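During the no-cost extension, the postdoctoral fellow (Dr. R.K.) reprocessed legacy sequence entries with the updated structure-token encoder. One reprocessed record is reproduced below for audit purposes.
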Amino acid sequence: MDVTIATSTVSGVAQAPPSKSYTHRAILAAGYAESAQVHDPLVSADTRATMRAVEAYGGSVDRSADESTLDVEGFHGRPETPDDVIDCANSGTTTRLVTATAALQDGLTVLTGDDSLRSRPQGALLDAIEQLGGRAESTRGNGQAPLVVGGGIGGGSVAIPGDVSSQYITALLMAGAVTDEGIDVDLTTELKSSPYVDITLEVLGVRRRCRADGRGVLGRGRPDLRPGGRRVPRPR
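Re-encoded structure tokens follow.
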């Protein structure tokens, strides 16, 4: 059999999906606010876990038919004590971000997830919450979920290593943005994965300050949700 292969040109445009990291932060920031929209979110199993957490704390998240917009009614910085355990499934980002949210309410929140999530370390974040006067413990005493968190923290200063997980830093910054005092995060080591913290600072409208030794002091701010909400960017 004779086969003739002709040259051809393939062309087109492939659109990258929206940022999952940005989507998590935008949803939770909208939850901390009174109400806001999140446009072009990445709707996935992980970000749905963050939506469920916002609802557990007293907010609501409604998705448009094509899932291009989330209408979030927030809890206005005052999370309710959830009626049930918050199941974060396999989303480590959700777990860490909303663990700090739990520290804002006076009651106790239980956070858990699947087998994989329950093997991930949370100890540095639990220690940071206790520095702020909250209650934060692992039910198994190993720094892993299930977690019990509460205490009604009002802000303050906390020292935490920056080379363990940037998600701990993000969690504290986002919770601190709705406290009366704010939370100053003093990094005791060089910051790891700083681009993810930069996303958080952008969402909150907070600037990073640096000490003389070059390590950061991440300061206080308020959720900066512009009228109409926030659009989730796509990687370029």
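The chain is about 30% helix and 20% strand. The chain has a mean pLDDT of 89. The remaining legacy entries will be reprocessed before the final report is submitted.
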